[in-house]
Specification:
By secondary structure, the chain is of the alpha+beta class. Strands 8, 9, 10, 11, 12, 13, 14, 15 and 16 form a nine-stranded mixed sheet that branches. Strands 1, 2, 3, 4, 5, 6 and 7 form a seven-stranded antiparallel sheet that branches. Helix 2 crosses helix 3. It has seven helices and 16 strands. Strand 4 and strand 5 form a beta hairpin. The relative contact order is 0.13. The model has no long low-confidence stretch (mean pLDDT 95).
């Protein structure tokens, strides 16, 4: 992946309805979204020129904003058209897309009802979150100190920028100790999710995953559950205690960036990436690739 800083790259970004030069897509330092976290975003991948589950992402972006008490001034159809334009203009077939919406600069205080709502969409080349060699061996996860917040304290079903503050801290701490990422618990010390991905476990041919009512129900998570059930695999969504990890044989994480990535270690617990995980990795890659049209 390129080491060029994101504010120094070439290309164009869709910004409030117009394609602007990449380096000119800027906001003022006194922007509400920067100071108070009034911003929402999506992370999406395009494969072969097609954005996977693009509509679902656009719909979730608008819902996330509504949960933060603002309305994105573009319809789902307009967001879809903008993403297609960004992808086409980028010249990329396989790409990562980042739509982001935020409150602007008219008011600088906690209350900002009159602030303009902005939307920008960028696309860039971003290979698999983890390199192939590491991925096949299974990545190592630390167990984070911070917990996912009680839904009574934060809009936990929104893809809100502010909710990722503790994710960044947790991932940095994990990487500083030699891990690839961190597994986070919820406020009741149940297994929740990773810093930017959902988690699954396998025992005796049954897939177990935390119930997604206390954190973001990822679109990749939903896709993998559907793929597993198509295969006839049993999927159980429930509360999972950390000590249960000792009894699981396989573990993997899912996300638009991570795709389907096997896990070999979570703190003191060990797993061996196996046939079921490999099957779901392959099924997911087949699902996201554009289908060839019959002649």
């Amino acid at each position: 992946m390129s080491v060029i800083p994101f504010d120094e790259r070439e290309g164009t970004i869709w910004f409030d309805g117009a394609m602007v030069p990449w380096r000119e897509a800027k906001i003022h330092v006194l922007t509400h979204g920067l100071h108070y976290g009034s911003a929402v975003f999506e992370g999406e991948r395009a494969y072969g020129g097609r954005i996977f589950k693009s509509l679902e992402h656009s719909e979730r972006l608008r819902r996330s904003a509504q949960l933060l008490d603002f309305e994105i001034p573009y319809s789902v159809a307009e967001i879809e058209a903008a993403k297609e334009l960004v992808l086409k203009t980028s010249g990329l077939s396989d790409a990562y897309l980042r739509p982001v919406a935020w409150r602007g600069s008219e008011m600088m205080g906690v209350a900002a009802q009159q602030n303009t709502i902005h939307l920008a969409i960028a696309a860039w080349e971003w290979p698999s979150y983890f390199d192939p060699a590491t991925k096949m061996k299974g990545i190592r996860l630390d167990i984070a100190d911070y917990r996912r917040p009680d839904p009574r304290t934060a809009p936990s079903t929104s893809k809100a920028a502010g909710l990722y503050m503790i994710c960044t801290i947790s991932k940095h701490r994990a990487e500083n100790k030699g891990y690839a990422d961190a597994l986070m618990l919820d406020w009741e010390d149940n297994v929740a999710e990773c810093t930017g991905a959902n988690v699954f476990f396998i025992r005796d041919g049954v897939i177990h995953t935390p119930k997604a009512d206390r954190f973001l129900n990822g679109l990749t998570r939903q896709t993998v559950i559907d793929l597993a059930r198509r295969r006839g695999f049993e999927v159980v969504e429930r509360r999972i205690r950390p000590e249960e990890m000792e009894g699981f044989s396989e573990c993997f994480i899912t996300g638009s960036a991570a795709e389907v990535t096997p896990v070999a270690e979570v703190g003191p617990y060990r797993f061996t990436p196996g046939a079921m995980t490999k099957t779901l990795m392959d099924d997911y890659l087949a699902e996201v690739q554009p289908k060839a049209h019959a002649a």
